[in-house]
Structure formats: C-alpha cells, structure tokens
Amino acid sequence: MVTIKDIARKAGVSVATVSYVLNDRPVSDEMKAKVLKAIDELNYVPNEIARRLRVKKNHTIALVLPDITNPFYPDLAKGCQDVAKENGFTLIMINTEDKEEQLSGAVNQVRQGGIDGLILANAMEKDMAEVESLLETPIPVVFAHRSIESLAVDSVTADNYSGGYEAARHLIANGHEKIAFIEGLLGSTVSINRKKGFEAAMNDAELPLRPDWIVEGKTDYDTSYNGVMQLLNSSSNDRPTAIFSSSDLMAVGAMDAVKDAGMFIPDDVAIIGYDDLFMTSSLQLTTVHVPRYEIGRQAMQMLIEKINDKDTNESFQNIVLDTSLIVRNTCGSQRVY
C-alpha cells in the first residue's frame, strides 16, 4: 500500500508538503506539480475516511505531554489552554509517560476523529514513525518545547543552545575550570542542544570535556543524585568544582548529593540548573529561565491559525524563544547549604 511517505520520497519533498497538497492547503505550483506527478506515477488512492476527519470542526485540541508529574509542563499547558479558551476550543491532555506504546495510543485516538489539531510536547527521534503517520492525516500538528528537527513541522521551542552556552560561561566567569555536566533525556533535542551549548562554551574557553564527568540524569531526581554522589566520591584532586545540570529537577538531586556528602554549595561545589521551575527561587538556585507559558501560548496560536486555514505561507514556522540566565546564590557570593 502506497503511503504519503512514499510520495514524498518520489517527489523529493517533505511528508508535510504532501499532506498540504492532499488537503488543498497552499503550496507553490512547482511543489504541487511534483507531488501530483508522484501521486499519478504511484497510483496513490487517498484514504477517504481520513479526509472526512476535517469536514466538521469539533472545537477540540489535544496536547500530548511526556510526563504530567514534571513541574515543567503545567505552565506550558496553561499557555495552551488560555489561547484555546480565548478561541472557543476545548483542550484535552494526553500523558504518554515518554513511552512509545502510550504515544501509539494517542495517535490512534487522534485517528478516530473528534480532534481538530494536535500539539506534541513529547516528540523525539524515536517517535519518527508515529509522527509521520500523524502527518498522513489532515489534522494539523505543531511541536512545542521538543521537536524532531529532521521533520518539516511547525514548532515553538526555546533557544536551548544559547541557554546552555550562557550557563557554562557563567560558571567559567566565576573561576571554574573543572565542570561536570548532567545530561537529560537521551534523544531529546532539548537535552542535545543544551549539551551542545555547554560543550561550545567549554571549547571556547579551552577547558577539558571529561567523559567521566558527564552524568546521565534522565531528567530524574534519583538518577541525578546517584550520579553526582559517585562523582563526589572521587579524590578531592579529581572531582569537579562546579556542576551544570540540564534541568532543575536534576539540579535538586545534585544539591542534595552535595549536602549528603558533607560539602557546601557553592564553597565546595557550585551548581547551576535549567528551566527556572517554581522551587528554584526558594532554593536560591542559579538557573536558566525557559518561557514555558509563552511556548504553550504561541504553539496554540500557531495551531489555531492552521486549523482555521489562516496560514497562507507554505514555508514552515520554527519559532525559537530566548532564554535568560537567572543568577542566585548556588554559583557564588553566599552559602546555600
């Protein structure tokens, strides 16, 4: 059976462009001609059931989240919900727990109809097949926070590379040369870009990047705590003086590990986090602010424009929002623990 992925490959265009042509959305004449030619050569017959999914608007939008217990996501969801409500849409949330089988269930739910558009805040490269199957339906999709960079899908993300660079530069400016890094979820563009920013700052300062000082945190308190405790058990001459955690949740684990090891922050170990979650102010954690509410708000605005066919630009929108360094006390000036 011919799929729109086959058509895209034959025409030399993206899957999303094929979807645009099949659903009479605006693309250039040249792109449309290529797609129609490929359709003809492959004898493609569109799925009429899928076509009928958008005949009637249900005024319902789905937001797919990877983990509703993670305090990063309520602000993003609130941004989505506020714009949805302003425009007469109901928002439903689907929690995948970052499990592929849960995402498959969400995709099937969307395919059954009743949803006008979809915001994915959980997308990773491992989800490529599921996301591509969504693009075969006429339902508009927007990435929020996470994205799959190899797919031409509209997205709203934060500038995590610059945020990672600025965080590392702050530690370096405070005199640290021995810096460990706690990385987040493997395969997430968010974690990847934060790490790239860190590495770039270290390289620019001609400081060593030690593989044994890269801790796998999995965006999880316990994993971070255990990984940092192992680092701190090294001899005093062979342990980092600073830790850059690529999420605040992992930074809290790192802070507790330092405390339980009988050390002080920032005297013995400086710590910087990422996200600027609600608890970081009381912890006096230096961190990088991510505009979570604005990511959700702009992603929803983008999606509703697509639903209402207001987006007449055939190019894909990739909005990248600025991050900002929030300096508190875990990198200098005052003891926290």
TrEMBL record:
GO-annotated molecular function: DNA-binding transcription factor activity; transcription cis-regulatory region binding
UniProt keyword Protein biosynthesis, yes or no: no
Keyword Electron transport included in the entry's annotation: no
Cross-referenced PROSITE patterns: HTH_LACI_1, HTH_LACI_2
CDD domains: HTH_LacI (cd01392), PBP1_LacI_sugar_binding-like (cd06267)
InterPro entries noted in UniProt: HTH_LacI, Lambda_DNA-bd_dom_sf, Peripla_BP/Lac1_sug-bd_dom, Peripla_BP_I
Pfam families attached to this UniProt entry: LacI, Peripla_BP_1
Domain (HTH lacI-type): residue spans on this chain: 2-55
Keywords associated with the record: DNA-binding, Repressor, Transcription, Transcription regulation
Domain of life according to the entry: Bacteria
Cited PANTHER family: HTH-TYPE TRANSCRIPTIONAL REPRESSOR PURR-RELATED, LACI-RELATED TRANSCRIPTIONAL REPRESSOR
Identification of the protein by name: Transcriptional regulator, LacI family
Source organism of the structure: Salibacterium qingdaonense
Lineage, uppermost ranks: Bacteria, Bacillati, Bacillota, Bacilli, Bacillales
